[in-house]
Each structure stands twice: as C-alpha cells, then as structure tokens.
From TrEMBL:
Keywords from the named record: Membrane, Transmembrane, Transmembrane helix
One Pfam family this sequence matches: Methyltransf_32
Domain Methyltransferase: 58-125
Segments crossing the lipid bilayer: 6-28
Protein name: Methyltransferase domain-containing protein
Superkingdom of origin: Eukaryota
Organism in which the protein naturally occurs: Dibothriocephalus latus
InterPro entries assigned to the protein according to its UniProt record, in alphabetical order: Methyltranfer_dom, METTL25
Length: 127
C-alpha cells in the first residue's frame, strides 16, 4: 500500500514537472533571440553511440528528444542542477551529464534500478 502511494506521488511530480516545462516554453517571449549554444553536443549524439549503450532505438530516440528539451530549459533558466525523479536505469541522467555536461541528481525508489544505473554509468564512462 505504501509503495503504491509513493509511486502515485512520483507520477504526480513527474506530470507537474512536464507541465511546468511546457508552460515555461510556451510563455517565452516571441521576440527572444534564439540561443545558438543550447544543444552544443546533441548533434554528435548519433555518432557517440556509447551514450546509447544498452538502449534500443526507440528508447535512445526518446532519451535524446527529452534530454535536448531538458538541456534547453536548463540553459535558458540558468539552473544549477537537474533532478531526475524516477530515474530508472539512468538513461536520461547519463545523457544529460555526458552529452551536455549538466549535473544530475537521479532519484529512484527501487534499489535494483539504482544499482543498474551505477553499473551502466561506469560502463558508459569507460568508452
């Protein structure tokens, strides 16, 4: 029962974060100058397959698309860190950290996911 409540709270937090990100993007001034440095490394992601290690093509596409959005918001809002709540295997955190140099705090309620994420990060960093 308690773990079910925690999962529901995590899902609600993720939904709120996504809504905040969408609202932040849609209320940006129309005359704001585009930032050329928003995605400095993402264009080389396809050639940097080490970041995609262990992901299928669909997951790699999802991580890259959402990661690019997170990186853009991170830079536009001049944030200090990104928190990935419900980080699972750490795909998004690894992408943001290695492809964009963003400090990421990964949070997951399942110990098995935390261990898997740490192993994956160590393997990816060997490349």
């Amino acid at each position: 029962m308690r773990s079910g409540i925690i999962i529901i709270i995590i899902i609600i937090i993720i939904i709120i974060i996504i809504i905040i990100m969408v609202v932040t993007i849609t209320i940006a001034p129309a005359d704001a100058a585009p930032k050329s440095n928003i995605l400095p490394v993402a264009s080389t992601l396809h050639s940097a397959s080490f970041i995609n290690h262990g992901m299928n093509a669909k997951k790699a596409h999802e991580v890259e698309a959402f990661g690019r959005l997170c990186a853009q918001i991170y830079r536009e809002q001049t944030l200090d860190q990104v928190a990935d709540v419900g980080s699972g295997k750490g795909y998004l955190g690894t992408y943001l950290s290695l492809a964009h140099g963003i400090p990421v705090l990964e949070i997951d309620s399942r110990e098995v996911n935390t261990r898997s994420s740490k192993r994956r990060r160590a393997n990816v960093q060997k490349f």
